[in-house]
## 1
Amino acid sequence: MSTSRGSLADHPVIVIIGLVAAVVGLIVGVKELKGEDPAPPSVAGPTATDTFTAPTTPEAPRTPPSQEEDTPAPDDEPEAPEPTRDPVTRPVEEDTPEAAVVQTPGHTGALTVRIKLGSSGKTGPDTYRAGSRPGADTEVYDDTGRLDRGCYVKWTLSRGSEVVRRVTSGRCRPPSITLFNFEDSLDEPGSYTLTADVSTDWRQTGTESVAFEVVPG
């Protein structure tokens, strides 16, 4: 210890120079800290050493949306509003009796015609007494059944080749009276023929004849 103290005392100049250098270095360091400002970015651009570049991660490739994502599901589509329609007024249908519906005529096919002679003055299967008035009616049928209205009969009564009487009936089914009346047409004996020519509103036609004898009474 006595040796180091003695050596420093022997060189006072060196000690002073060291103190002065320390003070100067301290002053210079303080000035550098207070006096130097960083250059603004606009004046001097960053150098390669000052710029920090963050590592970039490559973006994953984007997958195009599938067709299912682009096209909305049928349930998601908005329903188009239905067009407004004016209410339709329908005629009120009247109730039709069941019998009338069943008997609605089709009126096709040929007619079947039958002549029915009355029994007044009848003396045999095809024989009548002179002066008799038996009367006659028709039965007319087509594919719908027996016809009444819309059906017409032209009667022709002949004795031999002579026409004795002609009558037209406005229907084919007898009402409360006989369709054909002989009146005095059978007063004379002879061979007679009664013919019924039938037509309908549906352009159907048919004919029938019946022959009989008139004998003196």
## 2
Amino acid sequence: MDTRGGRLSLVRGGAAQEFTVTLRNGNSADHRHLLVAFQMEVLVGEPGDRPGSGPGFLLERFDQASGAWRPDELRVANDARPLSLYTGGGPLAREAVRVERYRLRATVGGPTGSTPVVVSFIDTDTDREAAAHVLLGHSTG
């Protein structure tokens, strides 16, 4: 994972910040459906903040085929989602490398605080993580 400064520092209503996720398949098998999934815990507002009035965040993935940014799922919850509930994902052949571009924006009415974004790599054909998840540092002010 790569982002400017090694973490995301968002401002409510401010510009989105981009980051990339590089997938490297060094396994002995191809993945037919490898999904990059994002989750973070619910942010608790700072003293004096008014409660959020919307989803809080917008995650987008760059679609190379169309050259456009498309909405992607950022799960905001304090529990783990069962792997069997994830679907989709793209192929990643043995010894292949794929780089995906994302950007995250904090909406005007969203919460402030700090919690890492958990990035998971799920083989949706087997309902298993294909690799250990990684953490992307994040704060919103």
## 3
Amino acid sequence: MSDDELRHREAMWVRNGALQIRGYAEAFPDADDAERQRVRMAVLYAWMRDRCPVAVQFVANYVATAATALGMAGVAATGGAVAALFAAHTGTPGGAPWWLFPAATWAAVCLGSLFVVRDDVRQVVAVFRRLGTRGALRRLTQPQIAYWYVPATLCVTAVVAAAASWLTLVTALAAPTGQQMITAAAGLFGATLGLQAARWVGGVERLLHRRLRRAGRPHPLDAVLVELMAATSACSRGRARW
């Protein structure tokens, strides 16, 4: 997104948060207008202090994506090495090369990750269609990382997945049957790992958000106040049905 789009999203997020807090305050039937306004403003200030700006969220997502890719690469390499050790002890003559099993694991990781982020792929394609060829090239050649990080990550993942999958299939078909089964097991492990990519990224993002919010924050109970108001509102709205 451009800087204007980033500011627009930030403004819309603040507006939606304020409207949600106003809806929470309207659920207090025993408070008058002045009391509801004081509570609403106090919780709104707490929410503003506790939130992470959109720009910080994007940076945290970039860092979390890179950390997840490195972590999955290490786990995939370890799993492929274990599979290669199993294949080496089968004693089958003319066996497959050792790099087949890490390649199969990494291909499955990339394919699983692309399946998880298929909605993001659709959004990127829709943005490129809206911008056109010139607009897309103009945006991708800008020095700002926000313009090219996501499409570049998806493109690299797709290219690596295609190359590793083709190499795995061609090599595995010439391997003995026992080693083909080990290759399939390595691929299943990689697919399971890749399907958890969104959870890995989300976990790293939550850790980064917690560190960023904690730095220099004078009110550590802001999030508690916001959630307490939401819970109170839910109880007030639902008590007639209890």
